[in-house]
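Support request, please re-run this one:
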Amino acid sequence: MSVVPVVPARTELTLVVLSPTDPMSRGQLRRMAQLARDDGFTVRWQDARGGRGSLARTLRELAPLLRSAERVIVGDPFSRYVQLLLTLFAPKHLTVVDDGTATMEYAAQLARGERLVRWHRRGSRGARELVLAPVTAAARRKLAPNRRRTVEIFTSLPVEPPPGTTVTANTFAWTRSRFGPPRITKGADLVGTSLVETGVVDADRYALAVAELARTHGATRYFAHRRESTEKLHRIAVETGLEIVRPDLPLELIARRGPIGRTVVSFPSTVVHTLPLALVGTGVKVAVCEIAPEWLKENTSPRAQGFLAGVTGTAAHEVDRLTAQSTQRLEFG
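Re-run finished. Output below.
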């Protein structure tokens, strides 16, 4: 999902949504856009991925707004559409706002001077990557601070500020003031992940791990990631009896509205950083289950393995860490 808020000089904040194509992401963004409108913000919905001519039309429509903007706030520095916009219109002040794994990788790659590439992507470059390489290289320069541009990272994640950047902590104060406190149920909830869809984790082993976690913790609901496939979710429902919930808002807002389980169990994901902040003071416990090496697909890169371990290892002190051996006693193979 790509959201590009822009702040033209001496005017109010304008939120520009570069709409994705998958229905779940579009649905969540439409709900979030309405929340922003309810709070008095201007929202522009741009179907930049809508087919032939849509990107050119988007660039033409946004050009006046971006040229006059003193500050641009981006939600995904790895988005090709965001990168293309930044190569054409370089703001004086740039803020990256995100609580996903993309922010952790962006900060690390910026500090090391590396090209911007998502953590789960393999090392080899395909034809598309080679064609877009000039855009990525130019965007990396525009996403880095210099004498004429400041760069800020606004996030709840534990990132080290790259040289010349500032990091501002997202404490989820707005979320806590806007929603809740939630009703707490006696059972547990599981949080799904798209690691199977991104080609990192084996589908069979993931399904077995979900089943064992559900039995161990007495879970009754499975909050699906927006990128999880319908086929995989159907299999989980049939094999485990879990109620599959496709949230229409980000999980942090869903949890604050409630009801939510007394324990929330997640695989390595940034929710192990964000949920403790959103649910502070409610008594809800958050636990993270590590990914066992045998769950990974054979072609999973060492970089991806290390990144997943880092997400688990840097989780908040309030988060319980569950080893794969302690949470599943199934014989894989």
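The longest strand covers residues 184-191. The first helix runs from residue 23 to 38.
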